[in-house]
Amino acid sequence: MCLGKCMECLSKWRLWIRPLFIFLYAFAALVFVPVFLAKSLEDGFNKHDQEILIAGVFVWVAIPISLWEIILHVIHYTQPKLQKHIIRILWMVPIYAINAWVGLIYPKESVFVDSIRECYEAYVIYNFMKFLLNYLNMEMDLEASLELKPQVKHIFPLCCLPQWEMGREFVHICKHGILQYTVVRPLTTAISFLCKVGDIYGEGQFKANVAFPYIIAVNNLSQFIAMYCLVMFYKANAAELKPMKPLPKFLCIKAVVFFSFFQGVLIDLMVYLFMISPGTKTADEGLSLSKRLQDFIICIEMCLAAIAHHYSFSYEPYERPGVQNQSCCAAFLAMWDISDVHSDIREHLGIVGSSISRRIRGKSMYSIPRGDDEYANLVSPRAAHSVPTPSLYQSDCDELVVNYGTVNSSQPAKVHRPGYI
């Protein structure tokens, strides 16, 4: 009897999840804030405590906005192929905000939490790429559509680069140009961690005998390649992406991921050149100042990012009254299931290795007929009419009915896959 009532209560989780969330958050704030103020007053409420308090206000505003949007997506989980990646992107704000705030509170231990944030940067880029590919693949055979389009030219100052042939080559370069950051960023983070343990990292020091400037250069180049491929992909598919209003989404991703990285490098450089002075000229004081500034600014920026994400990645296009939503367990598990990441990175490494091998042998990477088994995963499922081939990059998605806007003033933008009503 009691078990039956519990199961019935759990089945109605959409009714009580929001009030429970508000209660727990308000309770945590009412407990934490007085304890922190009491402890700060005992220590004299110094400058460090003031920084933590001000940054904490922004963090504790940003987190509920993002968590609220995540909960709404889970409640209206009608398009798993798209919303799974949106939810992962929305987690970026809580992770970044908590990471930066913990870095302010415990500056000596920030090296550990910073590693989490740096790896999640790459994860966000990967999920944004998957979101775009899944959306486009619901509408069309992406590669076939690009083959019919005029050539997309490179952007200044890379105008001298060879043009990427529209179609398979274009999609391949864009996807793997973005995916390489998913591999490079965790790798450089691990190397940085080992260098810090070996006391050869030299964080904030632009010297030839430490690892810091080399790691920064590699990350900078990898991020630039990923960002450039995103821009090129957007240029090629701007018309097809228009119904889902892609520009605010692009700006949110670039502002948080790319801008925060370059912002940190700029702060390190300004502190190193004493353009921003900690009052003393020791390396430890300079490093402490640069990290504090970066963490403090990120706490403020995450509040703005949470508001931007609320409008850019809203749940409303997926709200479909009368349609049976997926269970909360399926929605929750989908957020944490990273098997797709593992498969795509393995595919990426295999294809890059095969590309290098073919070029060494003097063979063209893109001369293989569409549907060849070696690159079956790069072809849209509808490109092969006989036996559908599962794709790691372009998923075989269900019917898409997403109210992202209107094509004109009278007709809503509804997209159906052939064969579905």
UniProtKB/TrEMBL annotation:
Cited PANTHER family: ORGANIC SOLUTE TRANSPORTER-RELATED
What keywords sit in the KW lines?
A: Membrane, Transmembrane, Transmembrane helix
What InterPro entries does the record point to?
Ostalpha/TMEM184C
| One GO location term (cellular component) | membrane
What is the organism of origin for this protein?
Answer: Exocentrus adspersus
The membrane topology noted for this protein in its Swiss-Prot or TrEMBL record is: Multi-pass membrane protein
Q: Tell me the domain of life.
A: Eukaryota
Q: Does the keyword Membrane apply?
A: yes
The protein's name is Transmembrane protein 184C
Q: Quick check: keyword DNA damage in the entry? A: no
Query: Where is the protein situated, by its record's location annotation?
Result: Membrane
**Which stretches are transmembrane?**
20-40, 52-75, 87-106, 211-234, 255-275
